[in-house]
Design a protein that fits this description.
This protein is an alpha/beta fold and 329 residues long. The protein has helices spanning 3-33, 50-62, 81-88, 102-107, 117-120, 145-154, 169-180, 193-201, 212-220, 267-280, 284-292, 304-325; strands at 39-43, 70-74, 96-101, 121-129, 132-137, 160-163, 186-189, 207-211, 224-230, 256-262. The protein has two domains: 36-130 and 255-325, D-Maltodextrin-Binding Protein, domain 2 (3-Layer(aba) Sandwich); 132-230, Periplasmic binding protein-like II (D-Maltodextrin-Binding Protein, domain 2). Helix 2 crosses helix 10 (267-280) and helix 2 packs antiparallel against helix 11 (284-292). The chain is globular and about 65 Å long.
Length: 329
């Protein structure tokens, strides 16, 4: 190889190295400047609900860590899809974060909007994993889960269990749990949790599969009875109530809450947001919140890769259930 050609190759290598170094320096500088304004957390539900209070509890821990602050924007509508669509239409710059719920995973199976949680978002982390219980009236003839299941097996579709979202989480959780137990149940939709509790107490339906945080006061007062908690171990607030796994049912699904950003958000900004969130989850305000709402009973946190895997598995599970129910082909 002649000297001139060697010189040209060496010069090209130096230029490439300088360009790469310049890009790396630019990325580091951009990361150092971020964030230059407030971070917006979009909660796709109204103020005061579980998703809203959970997000605000995390935000309280984030505020001291962000110079320019953090704001919560409630954007209800479309079964949580209005907020998801809004975030998907914002720049992928790390300034808009979506509070992701199980509703978004169900929407991936039967979409109401152009946005898709797997295709259009990168998960930052899963934050919470809630626990459901099989609930009946305090004076129900069913004293144990075994009695309920035995009746259901002998009387297909005669068990009437209520929920608030036909084709959504409530029906999926109810039907799938009883299917795991070998029982065909009839799902009865109501407009609100208050109506469901009134129907149970009035003897109009047999029961419901409900989140425990919403029913514990009535259970502890004896007005409702928990026959089972849907998790791998007993719930500390209900030490006498068996878990689904303890009763031989390999079923532990529960509502989840996570946070995500638009796909394409720079990795260094995602990493920054994740570190801020992780520190916020250790803040005393958040720790108090999850203890008071029994959200610390089983570990909720998952990192980005684990969260994406969890989303994929849950979407596959929801697809199977919704096909069985006839909502999707």
């Amino acid at each position: 190889m002649d000297k001139k050609r060697m010189f040209c190759l060496a010069l090209a290598g130096l230029l490439a190295l300088a360009l790469w170094g310049g890009q790396a320096a630019w990325r580091e500088a951009a990361a150092a400047d971020y964030p230059e304004r407030a971070i917006e957390i979009v909660v796709p539900f109204g103020a005061g609900g579980g998703s809203d209070t959970a997000a605000r509890a995390v935000v309280e821990g984030m505020k001291p860590l962000l110079k320019h602050g953090v704001v919560v924007t409630n954007m209800p509508g479309g079964g949580a899809t209005k907020g998801m669509l809004y975030v998907s239409q914002q720049p992928a710059d790390g300034y808009t974060v979506l509070a992701v719920t199980t509703s978004h995973l169900i929407d991936a199976v039967k979409p109401k909007t152009r946005a898709h949680i797997l295709n259009d978002f990168d998960p930052l982390c899963r934050i919470q994993w809630d626990t459901s219980g099989v609930i009946v009236s305090g004076d129900s003839k069913f004293k144990t889960l075994e009695e309920l299941i035995d009746y259901g097996k002998k009387n297909p579709k005669m068990l009437k269990f209520a929920g608030t979202s036909p084709g959504g989480w409530s029906e999926i959780q109810t039907v799938a749990f009883f299917k795991a137990a070998g029982v065909q149940v009839t799902f009865v939709p109501f407009d609100s949790g208050a109506e469901i509790k009134a129907a149970i107490l009035g003897g109009h339906i047999h029961g419901a599969v409900e989140e425990l945080a919403e029913t514990l006061p009535l259970i502890q007062a004896g007005k409702l009875r928990a026959l089972c908690v849907i998790m791998d171990k007993r719930h500390p607030a209900l030490p006498d109530v068996p878990s689904s796994v303890e009763r031989g049912l390999n079923y532990t699904h529960g509502l989840m809450r996570a946070w995500g950003v638009k796909k394409g958000t720079p990795p260094e900004r995602q990493k920054f947001l994740l570190e801020v969130i992780r520190k916020a989850l250790e803040n005393p305000t958040y720790v108090k919140y999850i203890k008071e709402n029994h959200l610390d009973v089983r570990p909720g946190y998952l990192g980005p890769e684990e969260t994406r895997k969890y989303w994929e598995e849950e979407i596959a599970f929801f697809t199977e259930v919704l096909k069985d129910l006839g909502y999707v082909k």
